[in-house]
Design goal:
0% strand; 14 helices; 373 residues; flat; mainly alpha; 73% helix; single chain
């Protein structure tokens, strides 16, 4: 259970970073004004030649007329109707609501009773969910505000599930985590599924991971089985995000990659011989995907994973024969060789005219990787 807690903290940190960096690209953030376009701008940018610009101008003025304009697939959102000050006050109000509720419950915990405990959690969740639904998503400001309020609602649902297990069912340990994680994941998934809502995506994943690990522990499964289950969850989640089935991918893919690697350490608690092998194979897989698709979000954690799991593997299976200095030397040499191959592969692919598939669909220009969106 301690490894699950560590996993949750790491996933929350990475996911929160992605949520802060993410912009609702499918909704189109408002822009200051239209960018210059037309043949003259294209010539200035080096996209077309002067002769091609003249040919385009001649075609536009020809008798057959101008082709009908194709509407944009994703219209831009209108400018925000809420000032930054009002938005900040809304965040402060939500935080005060959560903190005040926690202080109230903590101060009068024994006097409230079971009904009072459940009532406070339900009231906080219902209020946050209702206000979030009322603000809508008409622009980027309300989109962020709704996500924040609904994140509070998801946390309140998890608290309600945990309180139900402890005070109604009178259980402790894994059943409490299963109840809290499961209910929190269900509520967050209902608020998120199929839409660009990073915080709800993160809450759904964390709740699912907690419920999965707690359920296996409650059934008597050991740590290695929990680790393998989390590994399957991480790989599957990253794969679905890569295939555009879990939006936004800036949350789903990195969190899935991180989980698949941390899960190998969970496996090592019970099966120390299997953990380095699975970890090394997993990191090599992410490195291969990152190189093949030129995607830094897969490549970077994969290289870091090699730095961890390659020495672990060599020390586990050849440590007695080679010794620590030789293991360190071989690990460094192999890691530098891998980095050299990646650098050469990157130089060979830098002149491609077509963008790679996968997460570049979200990452914009190739000079602006996914994490910089």
């Amino acid at each position: 259970m301690r490894m699950i807690a560590v996993l949750v903290v790491l996933v929350a940190v990475v996911g929160s970073y992605g949520a802060l960096r993410w912009r609702p690209g499918r909704r189109g953030a408002p822009v200051a004004g239209p960018a210059p376009s037309g043949p003259e701008a294209w010539v200035a940018a080096g996209i077309i030649t002067t002769e091609q610009a003249e040919a385009i101008a001649a075609f536009d003025t020809a008798p057959h007329g101008v082709p009908e304009a194709v509407p944009s697939e994703v219209p831009h959102r209108p400018r925000g109707r809420i000032s930054p000050a009002v938005e900040a006050l809304a965040y402060v109000g939500g935080i005060l609501l959560a903190v005040g509720s926690g202080m109230l419950v903590g101060r009068a915990w024994h006097g409230l009773g079971t009904a009072g405990h459940l009532g406070v959690a339900a009231a906080v969740g219902a209020l946050a969910a209702g206000v979030g639904a009322a603000v809508g998503e008409s622009d980027t400001v309300t989109w962020r505000l709704r996500g924040f309020l609904w994140a509070i609602a998801g946390g309140a649902a998890a608290a309600f599930g945990g309180l139900t297990a402890t005070e109604v069912a009178d259980v402790t340990g894994p059943p409490v985590a299963l109840s809290a994680g499961g209910l929190g994941a269900l509520v967050a998934a209902g608020l998120w599924w199929g839409r660009d809502r990073p915080l709800q995506h993160l809450e759904t994943f964390v709740g699912t991971a907690v419920a999965l690990g707690a359920g296996i522990a409650w059934a008597g499964g050991h740590g290695a089985l929990i680790g393998l289950a989390l590994w399957v969850l991480g790989v599957s989640w990253a794969g679905l995000a890569w295939q555009e089935r879990l939006a936004p991918a800036i949350i789903g893919f990195p969190v899935g990659v991180l989980t698949s690697m941390v899960a190998c350490a969970v496996v090592g608690g019970q099966l120390p011989w299997l953990a380095p092998l699975v970890g090394l194979a997993t990191t090599l897989g992410w490195v291969s995907l990152g190189v093949a698709e030129d995607e830094v979000v897969a490549l970077a954690p994969g290289v870091l994973g090699i730095f961890v799991f390659l020495p672990w593997t060599l020390a586990r299976f050849f440590g007695d024969r080679l010794g620590a200095p030789v293991v360190a030397m071989l690990s460094g040499a192999l890691l530098l060789a891998a980095i050299g191959i990646l650098v050469r592969r990157g130089h060979g692919r830098s002149d491609r005219s077509q963008p790679a598939a996968g997460l570049h669909r979200w990452s914009g220009p190739r000079t602006g990787p996914l994490l910089h969106r």
